[in-house]
Specification:
Elements: H1 12-18, H2 24-33, E1 39-43, H3 49-55, E2 60-65, H4 68-73, E3 80-84, E4 97-103, H5 111-121, E5 122-133, H6 140-154, H7 162-166, E6 177-179, E7 185-190, H8 192-199, H9 203-212, H10 216-227, E8 234-247
Parallel strand pairs: 1-2, 1-4, 2-3, 4-5
Antiparallel strand pairs: 5-8, 6-8, 7-8
Helix pairs in contact: 1-8, 6-10
Protein backbone atom coordinates (compact mmCIF):
# COMPACT_ATOMS: atom_id res chain seq x y z
CA UNK A 1 0.00 0.00 0.00
CA UNK A 2 1.15 3.55 -0.70
CA UNK A 3 3.25 5.14 2.06
CA UNK A 4 1.58 7.76 4.26
CA UNK A 5 2.44 11.42 3.68
CA UNK A 6 1.52 13.86 6.45
CA UNK A 7 2.33 17.39 5.34
CA UNK A 8 0.00 19.24 7.68
CA UNK A 9 0.40 18.12 11.30
CA UNK A 10 3.27 20.55 11.82
CA UNK A 11 1.07 23.59 11.30
CA UNK A 12 -2.41 22.36 12.20
CA UNK A 13 -3.44 25.62 13.90
CA UNK A 14 -2.62 27.71 10.82
CA UNK A 15 -4.39 25.19 8.63
CA UNK A 16 -7.54 25.53 10.77
CA UNK A 17 -7.34 29.33 10.72
CA UNK A 18 -6.68 30.01 7.06
CA UNK A 19 -8.04 27.15 4.97
CA UNK A 20 -11.33 27.91 3.14
CA UNK A 21 -14.43 25.72 3.46
CA UNK A 22 -17.00 24.83 0.78
CA UNK A 23 -20.09 27.05 0.52
CA UNK A 24 -23.70 26.00 1.25
CA UNK A 25 -24.30 25.38 -2.47
CA UNK A 26 -22.12 22.27 -2.32
CA UNK A 27 -24.05 20.73 0.55
CA UNK A 28 -27.37 21.64 -1.09
CA UNK A 29 -26.28 19.75 -4.20
CA UNK A 30 -25.02 16.71 -2.30
CA UNK A 31 -28.07 16.44 -0.07
CA UNK A 32 -30.30 16.26 -3.16
CA UNK A 33 -28.39 13.15 -4.26
CA UNK A 34 -28.41 11.33 -0.92
CA UNK A 35 -31.15 8.77 -0.22
CA UNK A 36 -30.83 8.75 3.58
CA UNK A 37 -29.17 10.83 6.27
CA UNK A 38 -28.14 8.15 8.73
CA UNK A 39 -24.34 8.10 8.46
CA UNK A 40 -21.70 10.12 6.59
CA UNK A 41 -17.94 9.73 6.35
CA UNK A 42 -15.70 12.77 5.98
CA UNK A 43 -12.42 11.17 5.01
CA UNK A 44 -9.26 13.21 5.42
CA UNK A 45 -11.26 15.50 7.67
CA UNK A 46 -8.32 17.60 8.82
CA UNK A 47 -9.68 19.86 11.53
CA UNK A 48 -13.25 18.74 10.91
CA UNK A 49 -14.58 21.69 8.92
CA UNK A 50 -16.78 19.60 6.64
CA UNK A 51 -17.64 17.05 9.33
CA UNK A 52 -19.20 19.84 11.38
CA UNK A 53 -21.47 20.78 8.50
CA UNK A 54 -22.44 17.18 7.85
CA UNK A 55 -23.24 16.73 11.54
CA UNK A 56 -26.05 19.26 11.15
CA UNK A 57 -27.80 16.90 8.73
CA UNK A 58 -26.67 13.33 9.46
CA UNK A 59 -27.40 11.28 12.56
CA UNK A 60 -23.77 10.11 12.75
CA UNK A 61 -20.62 11.37 11.08
CA UNK A 62 -17.32 9.50 10.97
CA UNK A 63 -14.43 11.95 10.59
CA UNK A 64 -11.05 10.32 9.95
CA UNK A 65 -7.56 11.64 9.30
CA UNK A 66 -3.99 10.39 9.62
CA UNK A 67 -3.02 13.49 11.62
CA UNK A 68 -3.58 13.22 15.37
CA UNK A 69 -2.73 16.91 15.71
CA UNK A 70 -5.48 17.89 13.28
CA UNK A 71 -8.03 15.68 15.03
CA UNK A 72 -7.10 17.10 18.42
CA UNK A 73 -7.97 20.67 17.44
CA UNK A 74 -11.20 19.73 15.63
CA UNK A 75 -14.39 21.04 17.18
CA UNK A 76 -16.26 18.17 18.80
CA UNK A 77 -19.92 17.19 18.47
CA UNK A 78 -21.83 14.37 20.13
CA UNK A 79 -22.67 12.85 16.76
CA UNK A 80 -19.17 13.08 15.24
CA UNK A 81 -16.84 10.12 15.70
CA UNK A 82 -13.29 11.34 15.19
CA UNK A 83 -10.62 8.71 14.52
CA UNK A 84 -6.97 8.82 13.54
CA UNK A 85 -6.69 6.20 10.81
CA UNK A 86 -5.86 5.68 7.16
CA UNK A 87 -8.44 6.33 4.50
CA UNK A 88 -7.69 2.90 3.05
CA UNK A 89 -8.11 1.06 6.37
CA UNK A 90 -10.96 2.55 8.38
CA UNK A 91 -12.77 0.94 11.29
CA UNK A 92 -16.18 1.90 9.86
CA UNK A 93 -18.63 -1.04 9.73
CA UNK A 94 -19.67 -2.55 6.40
CA UNK A 95 -22.62 -1.10 4.47
CA UNK A 96 -23.29 1.84 6.78
CA UNK A 97 -22.39 5.02 4.89
CA UNK A 98 -24.83 7.20 2.93
CA UNK A 99 -22.36 9.89 1.87
CA UNK A 100 -18.56 9.96 1.58
CA UNK A 101 -16.82 13.33 1.30
CA UNK A 102 -13.11 13.88 0.68
CA UNK A 103 -12.00 17.50 0.50
CA UNK A 104 -8.47 18.45 -0.62
CA UNK A 105 -7.15 15.03 0.41
CA UNK A 106 -7.86 12.18 -2.01
CA UNK A 107 -4.79 12.93 -4.14
CA UNK A 108 -2.67 11.66 -1.23
CA UNK A 109 -4.47 8.30 -1.06
CA UNK A 110 -3.75 4.88 -2.51
CA UNK A 111 -6.58 5.07 -5.02
CA UNK A 112 -7.30 1.37 -5.52
CA UNK A 113 -7.24 0.58 -1.80
CA UNK A 114 -9.36 3.60 -0.95
CA UNK A 115 -11.98 2.81 -3.60
CA UNK A 116 -12.27 -0.73 -2.23
CA UNK A 117 -12.73 0.68 1.26
CA UNK A 118 -15.43 3.05 -0.01
CA UNK A 119 -17.29 0.13 -1.55
CA UNK A 120 -17.00 -1.87 1.68
CA UNK A 121 -18.37 0.78 4.04
CA UNK A 122 -21.03 2.28 1.77
CA UNK A 123 -24.66 1.33 1.37
CA UNK A 124 -25.82 0.48 -2.16
CA UNK A 125 -26.36 3.71 -4.14
CA UNK A 126 -24.54 5.85 -1.59
CA UNK A 127 -22.85 9.03 -2.83
CA UNK A 128 -19.17 9.92 -2.93
CA UNK A 129 -17.83 13.41 -3.59
CA UNK A 130 -14.17 14.29 -4.17
CA UNK A 131 -13.57 18.00 -3.70
CA UNK A 132 -10.57 20.18 -4.41
CA UNK A 133 -10.08 23.91 -4.75
CA UNK A 134 -7.52 25.53 -6.97
CA UNK A 135 -5.47 28.73 -6.98
CA UNK A 136 -7.49 31.59 -5.56
CA UNK A 137 -8.29 34.52 -7.76
CA UNK A 138 -8.52 38.15 -6.61
CA UNK A 139 -7.74 40.55 -9.43
CA UNK A 140 -5.24 40.81 -12.26
CA UNK A 141 -2.43 42.33 -10.17
CA UNK A 142 -2.78 40.02 -7.17
CA UNK A 143 -3.31 36.95 -9.34
CA UNK A 144 -0.03 37.67 -11.11
CA UNK A 145 1.88 37.52 -7.81
CA UNK A 146 0.02 34.39 -6.67
CA UNK A 147 0.85 32.68 -9.96
CA UNK A 148 4.49 33.71 -9.62
CA UNK A 149 4.63 32.21 -6.12
CA UNK A 150 2.98 29.02 -7.28
CA UNK A 151 4.35 28.33 -10.75
CA UNK A 152 7.73 30.06 -10.78
CA UNK A 153 8.88 29.78 -7.15
CA UNK A 154 7.25 26.89 -5.27
CA UNK A 155 5.89 24.52 -7.92
CA UNK A 156 9.08 22.39 -8.09
CA UNK A 157 8.86 21.86 -4.32
CA UNK A 158 5.37 20.36 -4.23
CA UNK A 159 4.91 16.60 -3.89
CA UNK A 160 4.19 14.75 -7.12
CA UNK A 161 0.57 14.23 -5.99
CA UNK A 162 -0.07 17.94 -6.55
CA UNK A 163 -0.33 17.18 -10.26
CA UNK A 164 -3.76 15.64 -9.62
CA UNK A 165 -4.94 19.03 -8.35
CA UNK A 166 -3.42 20.79 -11.36
CA UNK A 167 -5.37 18.28 -13.47
CA UNK A 168 -8.59 19.29 -11.68
CA UNK A 169 -8.94 15.71 -10.34
CA UNK A 170 -9.81 14.46 -13.83
CA UNK A 171 -6.89 12.00 -13.83
CA UNK A 172 -7.87 10.35 -10.53
CA UNK A 173 -9.46 6.88 -10.98
CA UNK A 174 -13.18 7.16 -10.29
CA UNK A 175 -14.98 3.79 -10.60
CA UNK A 176 -18.39 5.19 -9.66
CA UNK A 177 -21.41 6.30 -11.66
CA UNK A 178 -20.53 9.93 -12.20
CA UNK A 179 -23.08 12.66 -11.50
CA UNK A 180 -22.80 16.04 -13.18
CA UNK A 181 -21.86 18.64 -10.58
CA UNK A 182 -22.79 22.33 -10.90
CA UNK A 183 -20.12 25.01 -11.08
CA UNK A 184 -19.41 26.15 -7.51
CA UNK A 185 -16.85 28.60 -6.13
CA UNK A 186 -15.78 29.54 -2.62
CA UNK A 187 -16.13 33.32 -2.26
CA UNK A 188 -14.62 35.04 0.77
CA UNK A 189 -13.64 38.52 1.93
CA UNK A 190 -10.05 38.67 3.12
CA UNK A 191 -7.43 41.20 4.11
CA UNK A 192 -3.82 40.84 3.03
CA UNK A 193 -2.77 39.14 6.28
CA UNK A 194 -5.31 36.39 5.74
CA UNK A 195 -4.16 35.89 2.17
CA UNK A 196 -0.51 35.56 3.17
CA UNK A 197 -1.41 33.33 6.11
CA UNK A 198 -3.29 31.03 3.75
CA UNK A 199 -0.41 30.89 1.27
CA UNK A 200 1.90 29.84 4.08
CA UNK A 201 -0.22 26.70 4.54
CA UNK A 202 0.78 25.48 1.07
CA UNK A 203 2.73 22.27 1.52
CA UNK A 204 4.93 23.18 -1.44
CA UNK A 205 5.83 26.47 0.19
CA UNK A 206 6.68 24.71 3.44
CA UNK A 207 8.95 22.33 1.51
CA UNK A 208 10.61 25.37 -0.12
CA UNK A 209 11.27 26.95 3.30
CA UNK A 210 12.71 23.71 4.68
CA UNK A 211 15.06 23.24 1.74
CA UNK A 212 16.15 26.83 1.07
CA UNK A 213 15.80 28.30 4.58
CA UNK A 214 13.97 31.39 3.33
CA UNK A 215 10.33 32.40 3.15
CA UNK A 216 9.29 33.51 -0.34
CA UNK A 217 6.13 35.10 1.05
CA UNK A 218 8.25 37.52 3.09
CA UNK A 219 10.37 38.25 0.04
CA UNK A 220 7.30 39.11 -2.07
CA UNK A 221 5.40 40.88 0.69
CA UNK A 222 6.53 44.41 -0.34
CA UNK A 223 5.14 43.80 -3.82
CA UNK A 224 1.83 42.61 -2.36
CA UNK A 225 1.68 45.72 -0.16
CA UNK A 226 2.07 47.94 -3.22
CA UNK A 227 -1.25 46.67 -4.59
CA UNK A 228 -3.12 45.74 -1.40
CA UNK A 229 -3.43 48.39 1.32
CA UNK A 230 -3.19 47.50 5.00
CA UNK A 231 -6.64 46.64 6.35
CA UNK A 232 -8.22 46.64 2.89
CA UNK A 233 -10.76 43.88 2.30
CA UNK A 234 -10.89 42.20 -1.07
CA UNK A 235 -13.08 39.41 -2.41
CA UNK A 236 -11.18 36.20 -3.11
CA UNK A 237 -12.55 33.32 -5.11
CA UNK A 238 -11.48 29.68 -5.04
CA UNK A 239 -12.76 27.64 -8.01
CA UNK A 240 -13.91 24.21 -6.86
CA UNK A 241 -13.34 21.05 -8.88
CA UNK A 242 -15.70 18.30 -7.77
CA UNK A 243 -16.24 14.70 -8.84
CA UNK A 244 -19.42 13.18 -7.48
CA UNK A 245 -20.70 9.68 -8.10
CA UNK A 246 -23.10 6.98 -7.03
CA UNK A 247 -21.62 3.83 -5.50
CA UNK A 248 -23.24 0.90 -7.27
CA UNK A 249 -23.07 -2.43 -5.46
Amino acid sequence: MKAIKDNFSGYSANYATYRPTPPPALYDFLYKQVAAFDTAWDCGTGNGQIALKLAEKFTTVYATDISTQQIEIAEKRNNIIYKTERAEQSSIPDNTIDLVTVAQAVHWFDFDAFNKEVERVSKPNAIISLITYYLLRVNTEVDKLIDELYWDITRPYWDKERQYVDDKYLTIPFPFKEIQTPSIDIELNWNLEHLLGYIRTWSGLQHYIQQKNEDPVSLLRPRFEQIWNAGEIKQVKFPLFIRTGRILK
